[in-house]
Amino acid sequence: MTDYTTVSIPKDLADRVDETIEGTSFSSTSDLVRFLLRSIVIQNQQKGELTEAEFSEIADQLEDLGYLD
């Protein structure tokens, strides 16, 4: 069985995510966040260590998508 933890995000961001996932295969904000984090982690595990520049690029991309303020 998988254990879970809670991650808090601002309500306005959660509302934006809810609007963004309408009509997609994601059924909740949690589904999307799990997908994004899993994708980032898997991508960087395959490449090795995540550099500061790569982290900044990922953060910039997420900010451009409206997931980070």
Task: Give a written overview of the molecule.
The chain has helices at residues 11-21, 29-47, 52-64. It has 69 residues and is mainly alpha-helical. The chain has one domain. The protein is globular. The protein starts with 10 loop residues before the first helix and ends in a 5-residue tail after the last helix. The model has no long low-confidence stretch (mean pLDDT 80).
Distance between the termini: 34 Å
Averaged pLDDT, please?
Answer: 80
Gross morphology: globular
* Overall number of strands: 0
Compute the number of structural domains: 1
Taken as a percent bin, the fraction of beta residues is under 5%
Low-pLDDT residue intervals, each spanning 5 or more residues: none
- How many separate helices? 3
Q: How much helical structure, as a percent, in the residues?
A: 55-70%
Largest sheet: none
Backbone structural class: mainly alpha
Gyration radius from CA atoms, angstroms: 13 Å
N to C succession of SSEs: HHH
Organism: Halosimplex pelagicum
GO biological process, one term: regulation of DNA-templated transcription
Protein name: Ribbon-helix-helix protein, CopG family
